[in-house]
């Protein structure tokens, strides 16, 4: 190996990137736009491209390669080869963790550039993109880098059949090639949530970013090469066709039933119950309008106790009027454009249906009169349970409010749980007994009490019912990306006796002594 290196025979090929550059946000951003397959950026096999658009003004940012079925096949083959024969799966887990730490460090070094790309490609307000879209992505990779050498099995005591003795243990092993399809509301953060645990476990992956927001995923691919991640481990295929492999992690997508292990994060219509004894200044606003309402756990329906309903709505409208709508790169902007034109059109239609069915449109409901895809923050009241807007997710800045009678705790719980979804929920009250009673009975994967939208990389995230299954983040996600293999070793009584003696003498080396014997 030393001689071959001296001859230059094993040198890594230099990464060649044909960037699109833009002078924006007081910097020059450099954006890859091609498919990333087997460690290289390259055009789609058929040369097909599509436009990715800046939602702030509707202008074209650049043309992006549109991966074909043949490109996806090549990406899958590269990931399979990297898993079967490459260094990634055979690497010492601690070394794999070191590479993921290095990747997180590079993301942090490029965080302003990543946040700028995220803003112009998705419409996220820059301050939020920097703190949450990019900031939590960095945290996620650091968290799972630390898990690489802590994914462990267990020993299991079983009944013995003399004279034979058995040693039984499990190992957590990587699945192989994982296919990941991510949504457009948090492009980089969803990439991190879905791929960091996958990589930490030793899997390889093929990832399809949302068609309308591919640019931060492709920039991320560039950083993985700089971090030293081996070729073929990570493959990015922009376009519209989902890949299929040993494992599929779909977010806001449909899974094909083909006996693959699947993790699904789907839709939500998260109920938020606001009792009269709450702190009204802190209840509800961010639960709806955070990230322009393009938030899977957004409070899709608010239930407000009758005695405070009118005052609560008055305060909400007052606060909306102070929100600055405008260029998301402006640090003073509170509310940026919706992600893309088709989504804006659906939001306008959603509001029209609400009015048609008899709900009261208190504020908003229209496109903002300016270039770009801006939607007014909207408030509906007098929403009845049978209405379309009471049952369907808007995925936008639309507050849907219903009253409930004072003191009718069980009644409002029944209404809140009367949904096919179960991603998140919330309750605002100063009464701890009421908070405990309600939170224990809300049917959702996450229940917020006197707060909302608080997520953390160490806490598991996922829903019930039609909101999907499987968990992202936290310790539990390692189980999603591993298979558990059971091993039975038949040993003689004497061997087991010697093993036990070694364990007693050298307790710190328990597992080592056992395996050697």
Automatic annotation (TrEMBL):
Residue ranges of every copy of the Aldehyde dehydrogenase domain listed in the record: 44-242, 255-476
Q: Which Gene3D superfamilies has this protein been placed in?
A: Aldehyde Dehydrogenase, Chain A, domain 1 (3.40.605.10), Aldehyde Dehydrogenase, Chain A, domain 2 (3.40.309.10)
Name the family. Belongs to the aldehyde dehydrogenase family.
From which residue to which does the signal peptide run? none
Q: Which GO terms describe its molecular function?
A: oxidoreductase activity, acting on the aldehyde or oxo group of donors, NAD or NADP as acceptor
Task: Report the active site residues.
Answer: 265
According to its UniProt entry, this protein's organism is Sinocyclocheilus grahami
Protein's name according to its UniProt entry? Aldehyde dehydrogenase 1 family member L2
Q: Provide this UniProt record's keywords sorted from A to Z.
A: Oxidoreductase
One of the Pfam families matching this protein, by short name: Aldedh
């Amino acid at each position: 190996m030393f001689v071959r290196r001296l001859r230059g025979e094993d040198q890594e090929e230099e990464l060649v990137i044909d960037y699109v550059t833009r002078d924006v946000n007081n910097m020059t951003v450099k954006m890859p736009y091609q498919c990333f397959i087997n460690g290289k950026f390259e055009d789609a096999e058929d040369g097909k491209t599509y436009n990715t658009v800046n939602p702030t003004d509707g202008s074209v940012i650049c043309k992006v390669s549109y991966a074909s079925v043949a490109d996806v096949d090549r990406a899958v083959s590269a990931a399979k080869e990297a898993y079967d024969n490459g260094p990634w799966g055979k690497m010492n887990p601690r070394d794999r963790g070191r590479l993921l730490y290095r990747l997180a460090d590079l993301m942090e070094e490029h965080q302003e550039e990543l946040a700028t790309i995220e803003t112009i490609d998705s419409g996220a307000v820059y301050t939020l993109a920097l703190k949450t879209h990019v900031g939590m992505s960095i945290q996620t990779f650091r968290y799972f880098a630390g898990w690489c050498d802590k994914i462990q099995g267990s020993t299991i005591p079983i009944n013995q059949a003399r004279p034979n003795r058995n040693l039984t243990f499990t190992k957590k092993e990587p699945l192989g090639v994982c296919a990941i399809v991510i949504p457009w509301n948090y492009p980089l953060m969803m990439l991190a949530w879905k791929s960091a645990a996958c990589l930490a476990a030793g899997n390889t992956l093929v990832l399809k970013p949302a068609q309308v927001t591919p640019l931060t995923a492709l920039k991320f691919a560039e950083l993985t090469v700089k971090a030293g991640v081996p070729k073929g481990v990570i493959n990015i295929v922009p376009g519209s066709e989902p890949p299929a492999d040993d494992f599929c992690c779909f977010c806001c997508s449909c899974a094909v039933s083909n006996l693959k292990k699947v993790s699904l994060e789907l839709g939500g219509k998260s109920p938020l119950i606001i009792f009269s004894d709450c702190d009204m200044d802190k209840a509800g606003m961010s639960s709806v309008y955070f990230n322009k309402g393009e938030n899977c756990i957004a409070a899709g329906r608010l239930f407000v106790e009758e005695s405070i309903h009118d005052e609560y709505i008055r305060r909400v409208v007052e606060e909306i009027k102070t929100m600055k709508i405008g260029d998301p790169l402006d640090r003073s902007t509170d509310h940026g454009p919706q992600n893309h034109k088709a989504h804006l059109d659906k939001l306008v239609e959603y509001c029209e249906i609400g009015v048609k069915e008899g709900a009261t449109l208190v504020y908003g409901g229209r496109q903002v009169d300016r270039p770009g895809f801006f939607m007014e923050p909207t408030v509906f009241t007098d929403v009845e349970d049978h209405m379309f807007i009471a049952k369907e997710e808007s995925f936008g800045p639309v507050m849907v409010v219903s009253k409930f009678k004072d003191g009718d705790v069980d009644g409002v719980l029944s209404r809140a749980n009367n949904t096919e979804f179960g991603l998140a929920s919330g309750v605002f009250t100063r009464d701890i007994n009421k908070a405990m009673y309600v939170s224990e009975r809300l049917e959702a994967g996450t229940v917020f009490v006197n707060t909302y939208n608080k997520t953390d990389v160490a806490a598991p995230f996922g829903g019930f019912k039609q909101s999907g299954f499987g968990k992202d983040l936290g310790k539990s996600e390692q189980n999603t990306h591993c298979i558990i293999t059971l091993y039975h070793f038949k040993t003689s009584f004497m061997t087991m006796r010697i093993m036990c003696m070694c364990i007693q003498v050298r307790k710190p080396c328990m597992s080592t002594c056992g395996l050697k014997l």
